[in-house]
Amino acid sequence: MEREVYPIDITSQKDKLEKICKRMEISKAEAIRDSIDFYHEYARGIEVIELRAVSKEQAEKEILEYIKEKGKAWTDEIADDLRIDIVLVDEILKGLAEKGVVE
């Protein structure tokens, strides 16, 4: 395996890195490698959702249908499942709550 070395400036993170190394009793190189492993695993779990372009009226109709089917749902759940921008979903839900349609 070819060895790769990346010259990076970690001046702003130096104190944090030293605290990590001291507390965990590991080398700086090991701490950096472990951080890369951590973020690699984290990134594997991230799902990219392509949002659909829908009108506010269409989004409201879909949200009401979704809630009717599911009973209860969180804002982020609705946004993810319907692939609608979370800001729009939140805005619609607030409006529906003001009208007493949803809690």
From TrEMBL:
Ribbon-helix-helix protein CopG domain residues: 14-42
Leader peptide range in chain numbering: none
Entry-linked Pfam families: RHH_1
GO biological process terms on file: regulation of DNA-templated transcription
Superkingdom of source: Archaea
Name of the protein: Ribbon-helix-helix protein CopG domain-containing protein
Species, as recorded: Candidatus Methanophagaceae archaeon ANME-1 ERB6
